[in-house]
Fold Cytokinin riboside 5'-monophosphate phosphoribohydrolase.
Amino acid sequence: MTIESPRESPNSDERPQERQTGPVVLRRSRLNEPSTTDQRLLDSRGPTDWVHTDPWRVLRIQAEFVEGFGALAEVPRAVTVFGSARTPREHPEYQLGMQLGSGLADSGCAVITGGGPGTMEAVNRGASEAGGLSIGLGIELPFEQGLNPWVDLGVNFRYFFTRKTMFMKYAQAFVCLPGGFGTMDELFESLTLVQTKKVTKFPVIMFGRSYWQGLYDWMRDSMCASGKIGEKDLSLLHLTDDVDEAVSLVQEAYKAWEDAH
């Protein structure tokens, strides 16, 4: 094994040659860097694998947060409404979604949905036609095709977790209309945030008793009965079929928030 001799320390009055590349100082053997940073940026396309690396994804994620915060920072008080993308326009649930969007708009609330078709479209449509602010937060999916035509302010996201932050940050209440896995995910995430007091004074409304009653009963008879959640946790949920009641719950919660601040 060859042992290299230690490098001699320069005399205190000798300054080695150096070259700066931005904040980086290059000396000795590193002086022979063949090009400048600008030259490497402008002179050649180079390999593209870096576009798919995690450090680059971090910048994309950061950009999504910046764009979302910037777009939504000045929206009025709002209610996030979740629901199925598969609800046909002729279905009664579509009409309920329109009525809910209209009722929330009439009460002075903007509505925030996932911006897709089905129930989301119905809520956006009801709010927009009533003269309210209709917001859609879209997501890049292989089987969905952009924001519905009743979105007045739309933001598209690559990442679910960025989009979810926007759903939660700019809402004063959460309403879940009948939906599938995505709606379930959003329902329980909302409940978890309220239960753990990450958000406060937020009602979580399950709109459509015939659809949600079985799930509510299971949470009461299984989760609560076995001590996995408490009675106080169960009381975070409100079941209703009535638009006026849902709007009233939102208004009461907002007044309680105002009184606390």
